[in-house]
Specification:
It contains 21 helices and 40 strands. By secondary structure, it is of the alpha+beta class. It catalyses: tRNA(Phe) + L-phenylalanine + ATP = L-phenylalanyl-tRNA(Phe) + AMP + diphosphate + H(+).
Length: 806
């Protein structure tokens, strides 16, 4: 919301500089996003009249003009403006002047003819093309006859055009929608400066013809709690007077015509959006507010053909949609230069429906911004009457008698009780009854005080954000001054900071993976429905967003691997082929409309490319399933889990059926590991890739060993090799489990060093070879100790796996 300081001075006697006022507003009410002076460093720009226009002897598009600029002699100006003519009152940038963008204007010659300055368009003196009433291509700015009568050549044009003005750009928060109007801003600034604002007044003269005979209106109370119109006939549509145009462009709104400009002026003054219909273009002499059906067609004022959605609010006539109520009008009843009769509409529409239409149609207008946040219900029909009075004045219109009302209700001012003791207790102050009363007076809040310190405050309609006693305490604090509140130190027992057990666990998981050479990735928790269904450890239902910010962010993710695959695809596209990434984050499981989704901490990792790049003495080594399995095993070991085992799983659709295993801690499924299915990899346009995902929430609930260390034995170790012939479908994990179960207390480690399938063994068999290391922390082992352990191991392998010990 832009605020013109010149306009604000019509309400209040403001004598402090603009920057000081901006600081007070920022400290008390809302942020100041920007502050600037419209004139900038421009100078020597004056009002002038065109005395003569002659063709340039050496150009077919330039003319030579003689200009009265208030000096003793006329000035000669050479210009290419297509609209320059004798008798016009224009804007002249004289020799030595500075115009917009710090451009200097100097005396010079154009095609041999002396030019003592430049006739300018508004865009050349800093008015944005978006708000300028005339397009730059149309030529220089020319004052209309009515405005020109009061102008004197040589007068400062920047003052005449309202550019000697400071603009404060307010960052309005949703709770302070009252400041989306000059009236609301004036009340707020008045409270800050301890001044009472003078609000705009008007006189409305009506004809004897009842407006109810010209039009009928209907509106349901649930869609439009307030709805009414006025009819103004015989208007003369023209450019607005200069005072109105400069007020609008200073506030960032482009002047269109006197009728449209008046509605915009009321929006800025009262914060109440109005709309003007061309009465003669209505399909019937009636207006109806109703809920839209899906796919009704409507062309809006911006020339875009749109289709409604169920839940939008429409204003119709003869059941034909005329406008998106509270958002934007329709082209079919637009006020044009040919308009003679006007219907002015003022309403309060249901905020949720307005937001629904504005979002779906991508039409976030000045009107929708205010209807969504709320408007002053006391000013709805006041703004309507004020607009009708201005049309009678500026467009010579005839205002038919009375408003035509479809819905209305009287504002019931709420009362809130608060005691000075409560205010002082919350703020830590010692304010008196008189001081608090003065603050409520400055805010314009009527109140009563009982014999003690209890205030009963009546909340005016313009401050619909105030609903509970805490809101009044905030108002007292703001106006009293946050800087005046006493400074105290926090009171309470000091405690040592630290991480929770869960935080320690999550941090440790990241540190382990980083220590193993993996890099952290961070991604959005939102994805597409198709990706959300992939790579789930156990089935989850994604949370569907009602209003997603894009098609790629419609639901919550069910796995972290899909995000990591996107990262891999991005890096491969940028020629980064060797990747080791991990992500620790949350996945979500919807539990129903009335229940918050379950959030579970997950950890996922992904490998692709080379584990070891090629060098002069070795070949490149690709990552494989066992590379990633080793990382996961080391992670689980470092986190204190001992009962870890991997179970082959061919049923995960997005994983390779021959290289995928579920990860169990005891009997609890906590994740999976394996190769990404080749078809899935092709979908992502990536190469052979391996991934794992763990449910950290499930793991946190399982027992873990604490940090410990093993004493290094000072006695020598003994190694034995074991070669077996087993069935092809027997896994090494099964063999290892048996060896460790029967190896005894001295078995330190078991390592696979050979796997063989081929001509030397039967087709349904494979050969496995293991190296077993035995050591005692207390004594030197002898062969008898080792032989006994090996006998137990061999017997178990033969009995349980039908292995042949070789």
């Amino acid at each position: 919301m832009n605020v013109s300081l010149n306009w604000l001075r019509d309400y209040l006697p403001i004598t402090i500089p603009a920057n000081e006022l901006a600081e007070k507003i920022a400290r008390t009410a809302v942020e100041i996003d920007d502050q600037y002076h419209l004139a900038g460093d421009m100078k020597k720009i004056v009002i002038a009249r065109v005395l003569s226009v002659e063709p340039h002897p050496d150009s077919d598009h330039l003319v030579i003009t003689q200009i009265d600029a208030g000096e003793d002699e006329p000035l000669q100006i050479v210009t290419g403006a297509p609209n320059v003519a004798v008798g016009q009152t224009v804007v002249l940038a004289k020799h030595g002047s500075t115009v917009g963008d710090h451009k200097k204007i100097r005396r010079g010659k154009l095609r041999g003819e002396v030019s003592n300055g430049m006739l300018v368009a508004l865009q050349e003196i800093g008015i944005d093309d978006k708000v300028s009433p005339k397009n730059f291509e149309e030529g220089i700015w020319v004052f209309n006859e009515a405005d020109a009568k009061s102008l004197v050549p040589g007068e400062d044009a920047l003052t005449v055009l309202g550019l000697r003005d400071d603009i404060l750009e307010l960052g309005i928060t949703p709770n302070r929608a009252d400041m989306l109007s000059m009236n609301g801003t004036a009340w707020e600034v008045g409270a800050i400066l301890d001044e009472v604002p003078t609000l705009p007044q008007f006189e409305l003269t009506e004809s004897s013809v009842p407006a109810a005979e010209a039009i009928k209106v209907t509106a349901p109370a649930d869609l439009a709690p307030k709805y009414g119109v006025r009819v103004v006939k015989n208007v003369k549509v023209a450019d607005s007077p200069l005072w109105l145009q400069r007020r609008l462009w200073a506030m960032g709104i482009r002047p269109i015509s006197n009728v449209v400009d008046v509605t915009n002026l009321m929006l800025l003054t009262y914060g109440q959006p109005l709309h003007a219909f061309d009465y003669d273009r209505l399909p019937a002499k009636e207006l109806t507010v109703r809920a839209a059906e899906a796919n009704e067609e409507l062309t809006t004022l911006d020339g875009v053909e749109r289709r409604t959605q169920a839940g939008d609010i429409l204003v119709t006539s003869a059941n034909q949609p005329l406008m998106f109520a509270g958002v934007m009008g329709g082209a079919s009843t637009e006020v044009t230069a040919e308009t003679e009769n006007v219907v002015l509409e003022a309403a309060i529409f249901e905020p949720k429906a307005i937001r629904h239409a504005a979002r779906d149609q991508n039409l976030h207008s000045e009107a929708s911004q205010r209807f969504e946040r709320g408007v002053n219900v006391d000013d709805t029909f006041k703004a309507l009457d004020h607009a009708a009075a201005l049309l009678a004045e500026l467009a010579q219109g005839e205002v038919l008698a009375g408003r035509v009302i479809a819905q209305d209700y009287a504002y019931q001012a709420p009362s809130i009780a608060i005691t000075v003791a409560k205010i002082n207790h919350v703020l830590g102050t010692d304010l008196t009854v008189e001081t608090v009363g003065t603050i409520f007076d400055r805010l314009g809040f009527p109140y009563q005080v009982d014999a003690g310190d209890r205030f009963t405050v009546t909340i005016p309609a313009r401050r619909w954000d105030i609903k509970i006693p805490a809101d009044l305490i905030e108002e007292v604090a703001r106006i009293y001054g946050y800087d005046e509140l006493p400074t105290t130190l926090p009171v309470g027992e000091m405690t040592m900071g630290g991480l929770t057990g869960k935080q320690h666990f999550l941090r440790a998981s990241r540190h382990v993976l980083e220590g193993l050479g993996m890099n952290q990735a961070i991604s959005y928790a939102l994805t597409t429905p198709a990706k959300a269904a992939r790579f789930q450890i156990t089935p989850v239902t994604p949370v569907v967003l009602d209003y997603p910010m894009s098609q790629d962010h419609q639901v919550t993710r069910g796995s972290l691997i899909t995000s990591l695959l996107d990262d891999v695809a991005y890096n491969l596209a940028h020629k980064q082929a060797d990747l080791a990434l991990y992500e620790q984050g949350r996945v979500f499981d919807a539990k129903g409309d009335d229940t918050l989704p379950e959030e579970r901490e997950h950890l996922a990792g992904i490998l692709t490319g080379h584990l070891q790049t090629a060098s002069w003495d070795q070949k490149a080594q690709d990552v494989d399933f066992f590379t990633l399995k080793g990382i996961v095993e080391q992670l689980l070991t470092n986190l204190g889990f001992t009962d870890v085992h991997f179970v082959a799983n061919r049923e995960r659709p997005d994983m390779h059926p021959g290289q995928t295993a579920d990860i169990f801690l005891g009997s609890t499924l906590v994740g999976f590991i394996g190769q990404i299915h080749p078809q899935t990899a092709q979908d992502y346009r990536i190469k052979q890739t391996f991934a794992f995902e763990l449910d950290l929430t499930a793991m946190l609930a399982l027992p873990r060993e604490g940090d410990h260390y093993d004493v290094i034995s000072r006695f020598p170790s003994i190694s034995r090799d074991l070669a077996l012939l087993v069935d092809r479908d027997t896994t090494s994990a099964d063999v290892l489990a048996l060896i460790k179960a029967h190896g005894g207390a001295y078995l330190k480690s078991v390592t696979v060093f050979d796997v063989y399938t081929g001509d030397k063994v039967p087709a349904d068999k494979k050969s496995l070879a293991y190296s077993l290391t035995f050591v005692s922390p207390e004594t030197t082992l002898v062969d008898a100790d080792i032989n006994a352990a090996m006998d137990r191991i061999n017997q178990a392998l033969v009995e349980q796996l039908a292995a042949q010990v070789r």
